[in-house]
Amino acid sequence: MPDELHFLTAADSFVSYGEAFLWNPKLVWMHAISDLVVALAYFTIPLVLFRVASRRRDLAFGWLVACFCLFIIASGITHVVRALNIWQTMFWLEAWIKLMTAVLSIPTAVLLWRSLPDLLTLPSRRELRTANESLARANSELEAFTASASHDLRSPLTTIAGQAGLLELSLPYANEEQRRRLNRIQNSVKQMSELIDALLVLSRISRHTLRREIIDASAMAEAILSELRQSDPSRDVEISIQPGLSVHGDQRLIHDLLRNLLANAWKFTSKTSGARIEIGQAAPGNMATFYIRDNGAGFDMAQAKKLFRPFVRLHSAAEFDGSGLGLATVSRIIDRHGGRIWAEAKPKEGAAFYFTLPTMPLTGEFLVTKPSQARDASPV
Question: What angle do CA 169, 174, 176 make, to 5 degrees?
Answer without folding.
Answer: 130
